[in-house]
Amino acid sequence: MMYQFPEGFVWGAATSAYQIEGAWQADGKGVSIWDEFSHTPGRIADGSTGDVACDHYHRWREDIALMQQLGLRAYRFSINWTRIFPQGTGSVNQAGLDFYSRLVDGLLAAGITPFVSLYHWDLPQALQASGGWASRATVAAFANFADTMVRHLGDRVQHWITINEPWVISVLGNEWGIHAPGKQDRRTALTVAHHLLLAHGQAVPALRATRSDAQVGIVLNLSPCTPASPSAADYTTYRQSDGGLNRWFLDALYRQSYPTDLLHDAIQAGYITSPDLPFAFPGDLQQISVPTDFLGINYYTRHIARSTAIPETDNLPATVIPAPPSEHTDMGWEVYPQGLAETLLQVHLGYRPPRIYITENGASYGDGPDAAGVVNDTRRIAYLHQHLQAAHHALSLGVPLAGYFAWSLMDNFEWDRGYAQRFGLVYVDYASQQRIPKASAAWYRQVIAANALPEV
Length: 456
Ligand code: FCB
Fold this sequence. Notes:
This protein has 456 residues and is an alpha/beta fold. The chain has one domain (3-453): Glycosidases (TIM Barrel), CATH 3.20.20. It has 15 helices and 12 strands. β11 (426-429) and β12 form a beta hairpin. The structure holds beta-D-fucopyranose (FCB). Beta-D-fucopyranose (FCB) binds at residues 16, 19, 164-165, 168, 221, 298, 360, 407, 414-415, 423.
């Protein structure tokens, strides 16, 4: 079968500010929750920080040249809020605006379309000090930040992403505490999730007020969930994981409601006392469900739902899948390409976003340069190939998929995992800051040039 993609299909790669920029104190930048978190001993697996990262703040010209070498048509990056508003609100730091303005000009001169994410996790610490995303004031601060950015870049940037992965921000950052700001409180996480969605809902009209032609969307990390066994306990866990990960956000955005089964669970568990969430005001869900131009989906793996309490009486093994034994990336994530087609199809059939972009997809494999200096990351090529086949299947089933962004352009700071996890198409030698395009970069270049997958 020939995997030819439709004309105009957007081929890109993605990064985020904290993961690549470094220069954490340069030119008037403020402190973000990730600066604070990574500087706290014990938070990052390898004890590292994003202080220098890929030094992209100083090497962006070289990085644009790399993108050109890959033949990228689009580049998704994020704005570090603390470069623009060091305190989150108040006066603007011109040097921060200038940095992103030059970057955008450089991209356009290279024929690369910028896709700008406004929030990829680096909340100003000054806002965290007054409650962060658990405070409704942060929503207004974000809308103001969005307004500022579109006023400065809107003449050149058409594609805007409001929030990246509200599930990760709320749950990993505020319930499990493994991401900044490191809180462990379920009620806070629920509040944060609502405010993130509301921030999206208010940023969309703020962006459009300045640029009526802006293309605006939000990015969700979605995973198909599967019960690990046919036991009732695993089905309950399945319902809850699918609900928390996928339905909570999709229902709010596209159906103007939160899933009733999860509201009921939250009441049962004592986090809330009625289905009217105490932190949700009348009209919030209307704002949250503002029509958008596209949905961004980040897909990496599926989730197998296993109950921690399988009753003996079920008389079933705790886990009957995965079968056959599957491959896992260095993150420990199962390689499950059919889950991408499944996710795309479910979202299309259930929620009908007008357009979908795969805004992240990729794999962590630690391959480094061999004696000849070549990085032969064949497992990454296989991963990308299989997932692009799945994306193509979704297209042939009628999913309005408009583009694909590989995660990531280059190896970078992988949050709580530090630098040990390498997701890049380009290898980064952090000591010398040398960039070495991997075999997957050459492979991806071919895909983009042909607008098709190579025969295998
Ligand atoms: C996603 C994040 C991205 C990157 C990948 C591996 O959750 O959006 O920044 O860390 O995972």
